[in-house]
Amino acid sequence: MITKLNGKEYNLTISADVRDFSIAYFTKVAKEKYDKGQKEHGGLIWNRDNLQDLLEESIDVWFYTIAAIIRRESGKKQNIEQFEFNFNDE
Predict the structure, then answer these.
(1) What is the CA 25 to chain-centroid distance, rounded?
(2) Burial 53-62 (b: 16+ CB within 10 A, else e)
(3) How far is CA 27 from the centre of its chain?
């Protein structure tokens, strides 16, 4: 699978390209997200209650992860009601 970012092609079937694409994508998205947050919140990031922010973001990450698992698994089954998580619930 070939993808482009900032004019560079990455072959996502090659380990080094996966690494390089991941770093390039993070660099692009992280800067934009940080700048957007600065406009929204202002001030210095270390003056904020980062633990509260981190807790709230962690909750979002959990739900995004579950949604991605459901989306991936639902494509494998005809009926989403047959979907089962493979977590140990002991």
Answers:
(1) 11
(2) eeeeeeeeee
(3) 13
